[in-house]
Amino acid sequence: MIRFESVSKVYDGIAVVDDVSLTLERGTITAVVGTSGSGKSTLLRMVNRLVEPTAGRVLLDGTDTASVPAADLRRRIGYVIQDHGLFPHWTAARNIATVPGLLGWPRAAIDARVRELMLMLQLDPDVIGPRFPHELSGGQAQRVGVARALAARPEVLLMDEPFGALDPVIRQQAQTDLRKLQQQLGTTVMLVTHDMAEAIRLGDRIAVMRAGRIDQFAPPAEIIAAPATGFVADLLGEGDRAFRYLSLQPAARLARPGAADGPVLPADATMADALAEMIWSGRDRLPVAGPDGHPAGVCTRDDLIRAGRPG
Amino acid sequence: MTGALIGRLVLLAGVLGFILAPDSFVPLLRPFAPDGMPVIYDRAGFGNLTLWHLGLVVAAIVPSALLAILLAVLVTRPRGAEFLPLSRALVGFGQTFPPVAVLALAVPVVGFGAWPTLIALFLYGLLPIFENALAGLVGVPASVALAADGMGMTPRQKLWQVELPLALPLVVEGIRISAVIAISTAAIGSTVAARSLGEVIIAGLNANNLSFVVQGGLLTAGLAVLVYDGLGLVVAAIRRRPR
Ligand SMILES: Nc1ncnc2c1ncn2[C@@H]1O[C@H](COP(=O)(O)OP(=O)(O)OP(=O)(O)O)[C@@H](O)[C@H]1O
Ligand SMILES: [Mg+2]
After folding, report:
1. What are the chain A neighbours of B152 within 8 Å (beta carbons)?
2. How big, in percent rounded to 5, are the helix, strand and coil portions of chain A?
3. Which of A56, A65, B142, B151 is the most buried (most CB within 10 A)?
């Protein structure tokens, strides 16, 4: 659990983080969204003390982070940054081994852990392991960065625009992978992004930040249904709100008994996927797959449109 | 590519050949020597003089490099940043002083011999190594430095494991420049009685024997080119195999 208590950071008389109080529950993903310069990275870096608060405190599982030596604290917290920041003179495998190395793990334990992580992140240890960062694609480098952050089994993972440098296709894949990984490991994730769609897709809760303050801190559905300020509404994009709302809910939820023609919608499709499929294939009823992959019912256009309006 | 390599090998063979068997070059050099004068310098062996010459360079450049790197590290630490302009000025000042002036001023203090030359080479070596080490340390990408901190490296671990290895190619590049400057400057040291290949040139000038001047000059130049190339290979090797 990460807890910010009235935390502020002042640079040259300006509070770039201004009296923020926030509690991030253990085992959840919290997405911090906001425009450039709103203080997202500064807030994030106060968790691992790359930035020291001017006022207030940050607690990690109840312990004041200021009471832990910075290097020890950071070795317990995973950190992923936008340009991955891999050490260019070390191979991918050695990069991943950084924190276990600093912690003095035995050689064999480090090697085993590096292999395990690379497999977990779909990186072939024998092919990618010996490569240097400049020999990796953007997506591979990003995954090596995540593996490095997770190497010492941190309970908390800080991610500062981790997907910022990826193209849209790889990016979506990386988001899906992160979600799976997080559920598998139960890590507490704090993720900074300026992409509301990403925040909605990944966040259990979203903190919307503007000029150093939190405008709203709520689950995605609530943010979409009831934006607390005009700024939050602007970030959502008025025209897209219905789609964003649909994108949060599984289409299977709308399934009613019956049958329909045409390709079957996969079980994990969202309502937004279902609507897009209807528009594209010119149908107004779609068969929806159940957990076993066989059609379990139909989803109708009217139901979808009703579901796109919160409340 | 192969042409350059062949050129280097020929040069190496020429320099080694002259050091080991200077007499075999008599036919080439005879036209430069006045009648009745010796063609090959014979008051000291060329192997000896070359070792002295290179010894001076190494003895000056090693401490020079250590100090320059130390300074560059200090001024790139958060607490040392305010000393950056001062160090720049100090090191640059060493460079604006002509070598001959350093020799002349050093003699009254430390006497004739190797010391004035060592002092001059030491001072002239500082600037290129300092500036290059500085560029290398400052040039560590911001995201890499941030990652090093974020992973929990102590400042010392960050310096030894990340910053210095990344700056290494530029540091060696600086040493390369300093070494070449030092090889030519060391020759001047013989004006204040340092043993070096310069003494062959000076003997030639004193006796009006162009052959001495040519052999001393060419040998010094050959050494400089070989050292420059050799350190160039070292830089290339470091860049190719980062670690
Ligand atoms: N070390 C610093 N010294 C002075 N000002 C700083 C420092 N770090 C950040 N700032 C300022 O604080 C403000 C917030 O910066 P921060 O990096 O937290 O924003 P951000 O929300 O992460 O923006 P972006 O989306 O562009 O990364 C900016 O105006 C920035 O200029
Ligand atoms: Mg930022």
Report:
1. 70-76, 99, 102
2. 40, 25, 35
3. B151
Ligand 2 (ion): residues with CB under 5 Å are A 41
In angstroms, rounded to a whole number, what is the distance separating the alpha carbons of residues B84 and B203?
Answer: 44
Give the residue from B143, B151, B154, B157 with the most A CB atoms within 10 Å of its CB, the best one to mutate.
B151
**Which are the contacts of B60, defined by CB distance < 8 A and separation ≥ 6?**
B117, B118, B120, B121, B122, B125, B182
The answer to whether A87 contacts B154, with C-beta atoms less than 8 Å apart, is no
Residue B31 lies in a domain: no
CB within 8 Å: B151 and A99: yes
User: Residue B24: inside a domain, yes or no?
Assistant: no
A83 CA → ligand 2 middle, Å: 11
Beta strands in chain A (DSSP E): 2-11, 14-24, 29-34, 55-60, 63-64, 77-81, 156-160, 188-193, 205-210, 213-218, 285-289, 295-300
State in Å: Cα A81 to ligand 2 middle. Answer: 9
Nearest CA to ligand 1 atom 30: A37
The residue of chain A with its CA nearest to that of B147 is A85
Would you give per-residue pLDDT tens digits along chain A (311 residues)?
999 999 999 999 999 999 999 999 999 999 999 999 999 999 999 999 999 999 999 999 999 999 999 999 999 999 999 888 999 999 999 999 999 999 999 999 999 999 999 999 999 999 999 999 999 999 999 999 999 999 999 999 999 999 988 888 888 889 999 999 999 999 999 999 999 989 998 999 999 999 999 999 999 989 988 999 999 999 988 777 788 888 888 888 888 888 888 888 888 888 988 888 888 888 888 999 888 888 888 988 888 888 887 76
**B143, B165, B166 member nearest A83 (Cβ):** B143
**CATH number, position B236:** 1.10.3720.10
Residues within a 6 A CB radius of ligand 1: A 11, 16, 34, 36-42, 194
CB pairs under 8 A between A and B: 62
Q: Does B192 map to a domain?
A: yes
What's the A189 CA to ligand 2 centre distance in angstroms?
16
- Tell me the C-alpha distance between A214 and B182, whole Å: 62
Burial B135-173 (b: 16+ CB within 10 A, else e): ebbeebeebbbbbbbbbbbeeebbbebbbbbbbbbbbbb
Ligand 2 mean position to B142 CA, how many Å?
A: 13
Query: How many angstroms separate the CA atoms of A37 and A59, rounded?
Result: 24
The domain of B229 spans 44-240
Q: How many domains does chain B have?
A: 1
